[in-house]
Amino acid sequence: MNAVELLKQDHVVVKQLLEKLSHTTERGIKTRRELVNRLYAELSVHTEIEEQIFYPAYLKAGGKKDAVLYHEAKEEHRTVDALVLPDLLKTDPATLPFAGHAKVLKELLEHHIEEEEKDMFPKASKLLGKDQLEALGAQMEARRKALKESMTAHAA
Fold this sequence. Notes:
Low-confidence stretches: none
Domain Hemerythrin-like: 3-124
Organism: Zestomonas insulae
CATH topology: Four Helix Bundle (Hemerythrin (Met), subunit A)
Helix content: over 70%
Oligomer: single chain
Distance between the termini: 30 Å
Radius of gyration: 16 Å
InterPro entries: Hemerythrin-like (IPR012312)
Largest sheet: none
Protein name: Hemerythrin domain-containing protein
Number of domains: 1
Shape: globular
Strand content: under 5%
CATH architecture: Up-down Bundle
CATH superfamily: nmb1532 protein domain like
């Protein structure tokens, strides 16, 4: 699978989780915890393969003229990873602040996904070409598998 398609599949999973989370209430404590934990795991793996494999290839192929999208995407990741998601994980799922954190996370991620899919991914497809996207996709799939295995081992 090529790198762009792999990342788009991740986006579908994340959007589904966010949608489910947005429909929970303060009474759904267990469901909220499960969804947030799944989101955390999915986003951790996605961010890692994107920042370690895809983004550097994109930046190298595009050079300075495409660096703005690269830096903006990394900053959006940092905002989610360092601020919004940790706040959500620390917030009692039986409270209204939880719903607020979840809504902000959903908005940030939907914005990020939209920019990647409308701007970065089409540019990457042109810059990198079919063969390089396939090679990156294989590398990203292998890294994803290793990360998920590592998470499963740590959870056991």
